[in-house]
Amino acid sequence: MTSPDLILRNGRFTTLDRSNPNAEAVAVTGGRFSAVGTETDVMALAGPATKVVDLKGRRALPGLIDNHLHIIRGGLNFNMELRWDGVRSLADAMNMLKRQVAITPPPQWVRVVGGFTEHQFVEKRLPTLEELNAVAPDTPVFILHLYDRALLNAAALRVIGYDRDTPEPPGGQILRDAAGNPTGLLLAKPNAQILYATLAKGPKLPFDYQVNSTRHFMRELNRLGVTGAIDAGGGFQNYPDDYEVIQKLADENQLTIRLAYNLFTQKPKGEKDDFLNWTKTSKYKQGDDYFRHNGAGEMLVFSAADFEDFRQPRPDMPPQMEGELEEVVTILAQNRWPWRMHATYDETIDRALDVFEKVNKDVPLEGLNWFFDHAETISEKSIDRIAALGGGVAVQHRMAYQGEYFLERYGAAAAEATPPIAKMLEKGLKVSAGTDATRVASYNPWVSLAWMITGKTVGGTRLYSQRNCLDRESALRMWTENVTWFSNEEGKKGRIVEGQLADLIVPDRDFFGVPEDEIADMTSDLTMVGGKIVYGAGDFAKLDENEVPPAMPDWSPVRTFGGYAAWAEPETDKALRRQAAASCGCASGCGVHGHDHATAWTKSLPIADLKSFWGALGCACWAV
C-alpha cells in the first residue's frame, strides 16, 4: 500500500460530510484525500516519505469556491488597479490614491475599478471631482463605483478626448457644466456601456506582465481561502484571444485556483453566430480539474440582459428578447451545453422561463445544469418553475454593496428577501453563492459569508430579517459543496471526503466561533489546492509552496497595498492616520482639512506626514 504524500494532523476538520462531520486528521495521496478520521488512524498510514503538518488544534474547512467571478478578466488587470475593497474611510482611500499618483508614470492611469461602495466609508460619500483634480492634476485617474458611475479627473478627460463636442453616447450620460464641457462624471443611464467603453480606452499590460498579474490575483484569492471559481466571462473579454494568459498558466501547471469557464457573447445581434461557432470549435467539459470549459453565459443575448443599477428604474427587456434567446438556447440545448444567464429582476426571469419551457418541449433540458445568476427579486412562482425544469440559481453578494440603493427605491419590505436564499434552499432548489467580482462587488468571500449570515450590507445596514439569514454551516455549504452542481463536479470537490480533490483552508480565526462582526475580516493562514500548499501565513508561512515573483510593473499598486483592505501596508501607518483623524474635530470647518480628512489629503500642506507637527496638530481644528 502506498503511503500518503501528506498528513495534516491535530486539527479540527469541518468536513461537510454528514456521515463523518468532524475529523482530527487527513491524509493526501496524489492530490486527493485518501483518509479522513482520527489522528490515531490517519497517522498509522504515514510512511518515511510522508510530510506531516501539525495544525496545532486549528479549524480547517473545505476550500471556498466562487460561483461567479470574473477572474480571467480581473487577472489581466489586477496589477494595474488600486483596490479600495475593504477600505473603511474615504480619507484612507484618498491617501492611497495620492501616493499611487506619485509613482505612476505616464502614459499610465491610476484606476480604482470597482469592488467598493461609498457606504463602506465612514464619510458615506465618494470623492468630489475637485478632490480628484487636486490629488492628480496631470495623471489620468479613473474611478468606477459599482456599475452606476465613473469619476474621471481632468487629465483622464484630456487623454480620452471627451470634450464639449463629444456626442452623448447611446449607453450612458456624460455630465456637463453650463458651458457644455464634461465635468468628469459618467453615469450608467440607461446601462453601463459608457463605463465599459471608457475603461477599455486605458493602456493594457504587456503579455508577460498579464501573466504575472494573473498569478498575483490568484494568490490574493488564495490568501482569502478561495481554491476554485467559475469564471462568468465578461464584456470586452473575447474568446480565445483574452484567454491566452490563463491557458499558458494552465499549460505550465501554475494555476492555484481551479477554474471552470463560461463563454460570454460579445456582440449584439451576433450572439447566434458566436454560439454556433463555439459549439463547433469547443467541447463542453474540455480541459482538466484545474481548467475546464463550463458552457455558455453569463451573457446569452444582449436583449435579455437587465441592468443591475438600483439607482435606476427597472428596465423592461425589448420585444425581440424571446426570439433571440430562443435561437441561442436551442443551439445550446441541442449541443448539450449548460448555460448561465444574468437576470436581476423576476420580470426578466419570468420571460426567460417562457423561452426555456418552450425549448424544453422540443429539446429536453433534463440533465443540463443551467441556471440564472443574481436573481435578486425572484418570485416564488419562478423558483418553482426553475425547479420543475431542473435549473438552479447562483446568488452573489451584490446587495451587500447596493442594498442602501435598493432600500431607497423599493423600500424595506421589498428588500427583506432580496434574494430569498433561505426560501430557495427550503424548497430544495439548487443554490450556491459567489461574488460577481471584481467590479460590482469585492472578491472577498468572507464578505459574502457575513452578508448571508448577518443580513447586513458592508455599510452596516440590516437588510434581512432572521428568516432570510443562514446559519454558518448552511452559508459555508453555499460556498463549497453547493457550487459543484453549477460546474457539474458533484462528488469531486467541495467537501473533505476520501476520494475528493484535496482542497482545504485553515482560516486565521475559527469560522464557527468568531463573532459575527469579524467574519468579513477573516483570511486564510493555510490554503491547499490538490495537496499543494499554495498560500501560507503566520504559523504556516514556511510551508508555502507557491513563490510568485514581485508584481509587475514596479509601480504596481499591488507592491504597496497588496489587495483587500490594503493588507500589505504596515498597520502602524494606518493606525497613525486613524489616530490623527480621531484627534481632529473636522466639523469645525478647519481651513486645512476642510470638513473631513478626505479633503485634507488633497491639500498642499504636509498634513499627510502624520509624524510631523503639521500632520498631527498643524490645523485650526486640533484645539477645538
Automatic annotation (TrEMBL):
It comes from Caulobacter flavus. One of its GO terms (molecular function) is hydrolase activity, acting on carbon-nitrogen (but not peptide) bonds. Residues 51-535 form the Amidohydrolase domain. InterPro entries: Amidohydro_3, Metal-dep_hydrolase_composite, Metal_Hydrolase, YtcJ-like. Gene3D superfamilies: 3.10.310.70, Metal-dependent hydrolases (3.20.20.140), Urease, subunit C, domain 1 (2.30.40.10). CDD domains: YtcJ_like (cd01300). The lineage of its organism: Bacteria, Pseudomonadati, Pseudomonadota, Alphaproteobacteria, Caulobacterales. This is Amidohydrolase. It comes from the Bacteria. It holds the Pfam family Amidohydro_3. Keywords: Hydrolase.
